[in-house]
Amino acid sequence: MGTTGLHGRPELKVGDVLTSEDNALQAVRRRHELRVLETLVAHGKRTRRQLETDTKLSRTTLSAIVGELRQRGVLMENEQLLHTTGRHGRPTKVLSLNPGAGAAIGIELGRRRISVSVLGFDGSTVTSECRDIATAAGLETKVKDAADMVQSLINRGLIKPETVIGTGVGIASRHADPKSLADGIEQQLDPKGASLSPLRELLPAPLLWDNNIRLAAMAYGKDSEDLLYVVLSAGISSAVVTNGVLLRGGSGIAGELGHLSVDFAGPACWCGRNGCLESFINENNVLLEAARRGHAFASIADLAQAAADGNDIAKGIVDWSGELLARAIGSACVLLDPSRVVIAGELSQFGEPLLAPVRTALAGQHLELGPRSTTITNATFSPTTGSDGAARMALNHWALTTIN
């Protein structure tokens, strides 16, 4: 067997075989690393003696873990006067997380863009980048383009693979198998249509992937609330986050608001039902409906501006969209009872006139089960929301919630 490499993984030589015992030892070492990291996230700075107490690790084990994390650039050790000096009157040495070290990488392989975000151990953004792509690009091409972006960030020193504890990848129109949601001892299954090997080769830390809208919701969901996140764009996607945890369902497709029927006599949808919300207020159909009513607009942004300026046809389209959205969200809120609904995507540019019918619909529900307080807001557009949420998911999964 070869020597120990990044993240405690053996460096395999030709002919070497990684046994289940090797995998188990790696898993134990990783848990030890995460205990140290979680303690420093919680406290900011700790002496080695404090870390021993916090993590319950032996001095020998802690010394080995700290040594490797320092070598990888994850930890810094400085002399600092805390409350008292150390033995012989010398300042006490304290360990802290390197603020410039990227702990989690998030990547979105969207319909129109690819973005990469790097978060520190404290959740702050280290750097992010975005690149527009052709809408016809296949998943394999998107993976290659994302790998090129990651390699560029590595070359510029903005990503240090040796400090990364996990990578999250959000993929448009793909849903992960709930039984295979993240790398553990076994790697997560690749999405249909492409291998994620080009990303794994650059970032040796474990990886998770899921639907990009699901992971984008993690950029908004707080640990203390129930969130319904809705994206109105080329299609309609949504996600539910409950106390910081994504709701996926038994087969991984929970939260598909776009396929709630808002008119049973409406047009056939590709999903097999009739009158689905997505069949009405997807971006293209909204523009077609405006043209059918007598005014063609080049984009949703143009339509939104015309509505704000008082154009009757544009205002009618916004009202129509809001009423249909209200039917779907009203039904979803009966089932989910979210404390917050966030509307994102191109149609969110319609602003308050789009949200007003939703507020009215919720106010009109009298279930007599207790007071309801559901806030409805628009999301501020950011081209890196998907990768921000993917990085947040990776950080939560491998740095903040896996320690018992």
Could you give the topology of this structure?
Blueprint: H1 20-43, E1 45-46, H2 48-55, H3 59-71, E2 75-80, E3 92-97, E4 104-109, E5 113-119, E6 125-132, H4 139-155, E7 166-171, H5 197-202, E8 207-211, H6 212-217, E9 226-232, E10 236-242, E11 245-246, H7 277-281, H8 283-292, H9 300-308, H10 312-336, E12 340-344, H11 352-363, E13 375-378, H12 385-400
Helix pairs in contact: 1-3, 9-10, 10-11
Strand line-up across the major sheet: 6-5-4-7-8
The SSE order reads: HEHHEEEEEHEHEHEEEHHHHEHEH
The level-1 CATH class of the largest domain: Alpha Beta
Report low-confidence residues grouped into runs of 5 or more: 1-18
CATH superfamily of the largest domain: ATPase, nucleotide binding domain
Structure description:
With 404 residues, the protein is α/β, with parallel strands linked by helices. The chain has three domains: 6-97, Winged helix-like DNA-binding domain superfamily/Winged helix DNA-binding domain (Arc Repressor Mutant, subunit A, Orthogonal Bundle); 104-218 and 385-400, 2-Layer Sandwich (Nucleotidyltransferase, domain 5), CATH 3.30.420.40; 226-378, Nucleotidyltransferase, domain 5 (2-Layer Sandwich). Helices cover 37% and strands 18% of the residues. The chain is built from twelve helices and 13 strands. The protein has helices at 20-43, 48-55, 59-71, 139-155, 197-202, 212-217, 277-281, 283-292, 300-308, 312-336, 352-363, 385-400, and strands spanning 45-46, 75-80, 92-97, 104-109, 113-119, 125-132, 166-171, 207-211, 226-232, 236-242, 245-246, 340-344, 375-378. It has a five-stranded mixed sheet, with helices on both faces. A five-stranded mixed sheet has the order 11-10-9-12-13. A hairpin with a 5-residue loop joins strand 5 (113-119) and strand 6. Helix 1 crosses helix 3 (59-71). Mean pLDDT is 84; it is low at 1-18.
